[in-house]
Amino acid sequence: MSKRQRRRIPSVDVAVLEQPLNLGGSDAVVLAKALRNGTAEIQHVLINECSVVLECRVCRALFRSLANLLAHKRHYCRASYAEHSATSRSSPDVTQTSELSTTLPTSIDSARPGTTLENSVACLADVPAKSRNQNGDKTARKRARESASSTAAHYRASGARERLIAAVPPANSEVNVAAKGGRERLSTKSRQVTSALDEVEAEAHSSNSNGDAHWTDICVRTWHCFTCHLALDNGYRMRRHLVYDHGTEVRYHVCPHCGLEREYMFDVMRHLHSAHGLVAQQLAELRNDIQDRVRYRPRPKVSSGMSNRRKRPPSGHAGESGGDIGGASKTAKLSRKDDQTATGDAGPSRVDHSQPNTSSSGNQDNINADILSKIDLPMTVDLERFVSARKDELANLTEVVKTRMRKLVSQQLPRHLRRRTVSHNKKRLPKRLQDRYNAEAAKVTKRPSRLHRRRPRNLQDEYTRRARKHRWLETHLWHAKRFRMVEKFGYKIPERSFDKSLRACYRGAAKYCLLNDISYECCIELRGEQISICAALGRISSPRTGLSVAAKKFTGGRYQGSIWLYQIDSYPHNCLGEVTFIWRPPESNVSERTLWLWCHPALRDNLIGIFKQLFDLAETSDSGSDMSPVFKGPAVTLTDRRNELNRFRLTGPLSVRVLCETLTQDESGLQLPSPLRLQPDYFNKFWKTLSHKALSAFAHLRDGQIAGNVVLDPRLHMPNKRIVSTVMGASAGGEESTSERADDDLGDVDDVPYESDLWDTLSRSFVKSAMLTQDQINKMRHDKLVPGTPVELGAKESRIPILIVFRGGAQTHLGYSRGCDVLLPAGWGRQFFIALNYRSARAAGLRDLTAVTRYSGRFVFPDDVPDSPIAAPHLAAETDALLTKHMKYPPNKRPPFAKLGMSLPYSLPFAQLVDSFSEQPVATDSAGLFVLRDRALLKQLAETYAKPERFVQTVKSIPSRDVELALVPVKVTCPKGVPGRFARLYALPAPYCLMREPAHTTAVPERTITREDLSQGLFDATIDNLYQILGFLVCGDRNYTEKCATGLGYVSLNALMRALLVNYGGVVAFRNQHCFNYRTVQMSIVY
Questions:
Q1: Could you state, in order of their start, the residue ranges of all structural domains in the chain?
Q2: Which of 255, 305, 411, 807 could hold 16 in an S-S bridge, CB 3.0 to 4.6 Å?
Q3: What whole-number distance in Å separates Cα of residue 1077 and Cα of residue 1067?
Q4: Coil, strand or helix at 929
């Protein structure tokens, strides 16, 4: 069909929309009359353009063959057939039909060649049977499918098929209905087929007389709707489709509660469940009531011949693939045209409207007349007149499309071009749309996100507000993205990394370089006469714990020292904590000296209070909130430098190399501005030599040695990406030859530049104010013609004074924890920290720094100092947190501390331990006991520990009261087992046999133990255990440096002496608070 012919076909099939027209009489009589008296067009349509479907009026089954319908009526609907058989055979309609069949026109057989009655009967015998009972239930259908194969086998065995085909003439014998007597021969053949069918059916009925294996000769596999060409595989679904989609009336189901009407029962059930809250049982009880209240209403008219519910594409191909309905031959496939205009009830193609319609009302006639009148359309259209009449409509439509289109330009493109606009690159759009796209991009149509709307206008002010309660380090933002932050000591401190474990940090400290920001340590500046400062500090310290502040080694300003501070004139009791100090190098013509004391933030307030008493200090009025607090006295001035300095700690063998690569020396030869008095040439020689000997620098530098420097802005000399840590080579820029580096030597200690402008307040303020912002540096890099070219600022580049303090590390394990501390002015912390990180320094947190300190055999303040009143609140907070976690577990999941014989499992009851071995009572708040820190005495005790007699003599030289109250720091090495914090140390007898702690059967049941019982103690754990207790461990874990588990703790000196006197072989065991087992350890005294 050409395109022009297709255009002439109307888009709406009016014949499908029209109701069936009653032409009078039954359908069979109407068809017979049409074939006999109809025109050539009617006979052509009925013979060549349509297929006749026979419908059973009892069960509404559809058949395409008369033989199939007869077999259905004789076997499937036998009861109805038996009631009307006599009247049906003598009915005038049947007689009339038989008579009319003998007078068929001559063009019937010639119109459909090759389709003979023999082919239909042969196909009837080949098609597998499908059973149906009279009621059409599913059980009978299932039995029919099961017996289909047996029925077909019976027919083949009995020879019924051969007798049925033998009664039909051969396929090549043509039925010449045009010749004389053709009608008589056709009727004779029909009677022969009918008799053969009767024999086959009678034999089948006799073989299946039990009535259980009914069969039929039709296999309906696909059902086709003649209105919308919908293909279904079930007759029930097809009937439901015809009723709901093409029926004249609509059945509505009514809600019994609110009267809501819906076409489907499922919608009403869903409404009752969602709106009225009914459950499944209540819905089942209301189902019958809803079905009784069904209402029928006329279906509204639609303007399309498709389904009333949804449009479906024509499925003519599906009908061909599904097979012929009624058992017709599979080879005789009839093609249905998609543009078929015939109605569902095949009637005459031309209807005389002048004749009265006896089967419809007057309204129906008017509707049909209106519909048919709309078919007459003009054959031609005057295009000029048509367009001129609608030019206003077209103009309005064009304006609406242009201006009121809500879609973006990228959304108006064809589908094959939309993918090109994903990148939001206007050059990828068609040129005709680029201008519109730019105009849309200029408009801010999208509302900002809630996060953006809530963003503060000034981030710096917001950060200042959030840092009021807990101070932020300058590297806080960098750490907050990568570390778990904790609130401790009034600061936000990075605790541990999200992606690095403790083992990774140990490798960094042992083989590479570990970086910690310890800027939370407070700096207190004392300025005054050296004699006054040394005399005051001598009252709160003792030279027995180490070199004092007045030592000649430290007063020159070349080394850093450390001392233990106590309350005024109370040594060795009332310990405050350990501090480090640095003297400023003496200046000519200046008698005042400056001392920096670096202390833990928990110690700061107590230390300032003690200095106020010692120096009779008073806070000055000129120290505002933004300035550092200043306290002036008659001889000494105290200034809190907490917010003016940053301190980074590098740990590891590559720390000096990383530092030298990060620091860029100023070799331009330019003079520094006036606040900076030390020129770069004073530092360049030493640092150039040190960079060449970076890997062996600790062999030439001493512990605590100080070196100054002036470096350039590290942001302008950073690598493009982070450098991976390696142990080969000394510098990223290359190394000099061995002969050239052999001449370079660090020289004497006096050659190290220990002076720095960092001591000067004006210099620190100038460096902070002259710093370029990161935005300015980025703009300078952007303005470079060649990308990646270094930015050279010359005299405008910042020069930063710094101080470096070298640390020697532990005396064992090849100087583990050696490194250096970097002191920087305020404002430059983040820049130097990132530069060090880019040079392969591995950032770490508080947990890693604590582990490195303990691995090197040193105690950590305040967790490991039991005799300090400052550490008591922190220990109490830790105990409270552990008890809270313990009580959250159910009783059967908690450690049975009562059965274990553990009193105060989450505490360190040193006061009870000392009190149990002393003759006089000791205060329970640890005010009387003290830790023995006399280095000479500790060294002597450590050397005589293996010889009990000499050890006892050494102890007796100490005052008896001090022996009763003294705690000795010890270190235990565990070949088996891992000790933990709060573990107990026990002394084993000489012929010892390691045993388990027996369960305390008389203990309090675990269910009855309360939080107060665990915090106050159930019993005296020092006397109720199997062995004599010596002390407690303050820390313990696997030690990667010694390849075994180690722990640090304290033992009672009096208890240790008594154990050596009473048959003690020097064997010590530990037991954790949650187990019964004892593990032997090797104990040594730490000094």
A1: 14-85, 248-292, 522-640, 886-1085
A2: 305
A3: 16
A4: coil
Instruction: Map residue 641 onto helix, strand or coil.
Output: coil
- pLDDT, residue 412, reads 74
Bridge pairing between strands 471-472 and 491-497: parallel
Can you name the residues that pair with 799 across neighbouring β-strands? 712
User: Which of these, 90, 133, 117, 127, lies nearest to 196 by C-alpha position?
Assistant: 117
Q: What is the pLDDT of residues 963-991, one digit of tens each?
A: 999 999 999 999 999 999 999 999 988 77
CA distances to 27, 333, 817, 1066 from 988, in Å? 117, 104, 35, 8
Residue closest to 583 by CA, chosen among 563, 614, 612, 560: 560
Question: 126 φ, ψ to 5°?
Answer: -85, -30
Residue 681, Cα to own-chain centre: how many angstroms? 55
> CB under 8 Å to 43, separation ≥6 — which residues?
34, 35, 105, 107, 108, 111
Residue of 851, 860, 824 whose CA lies nearest to 475: 824
Least confident of 425-429, 562-566, 712-716: 425-429
Place of tokens 């008594």: 1058
Reply yes or no on whether the pLDDT at 1024 is more than 70: no
pLDDT digit string (tens) for 59-78?
A: 778 888 888 888 788 766 76
Q: Domain 886-1085 falls in which CATH fold?
A: Elongation Factor Tu (Ef-tu); domain 3 (2.40.30)
Tokens of 32: 């017979």
Contact 1045, 1036 (CB under 8 A): yes
Predicted TM-score (pTM) of the model is: 0.60
Whether the upstream peptide bond of residue 572 has omega within 30° of 0, thus cis, is yes
Residue 51 has pLDDT above 50, yes or no: yes
The helix (H) or strand (E) run that includes residue 1049 is strand 1044-1052
**CB-based contacts of 380: which residues, under 8 Å, 6+ apart?**
none
Neighbours of 241 (CB within 10 A): 21
Q: Are 229 and 220 in contact (CB under 8 A)?
A: no
- Rounded Cα distance between 746 and 707, Å, is 12
Distance CA 258, CA 270 (A): 14
Chain centroid offset of residue 866 CA: 44
Three-class DSSP labels, 583-599: ECCCCCCCCCEEEEEEE
Q: What is the pLDDT of residue 431?
A: 84
Nearest alpha-carbon partner for 1014 in 1025, 1006, 1022: 1006
Q: Which amino acid is at 189?
A: K
The bridge status of strand 491-497 relative to strand 514-517 is: unpaired
pLDDT tier at 433, thresholds 50, 70, 90: confident
Structure tokens at 577: 């904590």
Q: Which two tokens stand for residue 718?
A: 């950073």
Per DSSP, 559 falls in state B
φ, ψ of residue 440 to 5 degrees: the values are -70, -35
Does residue 979 contact residue 942 with C-beta atoms inside 8 Å?
no
Q: What is the pLDDT of residues 602-616, one digit of tens each?
A: 999 999 999 999 999
DSSP state of 74: I
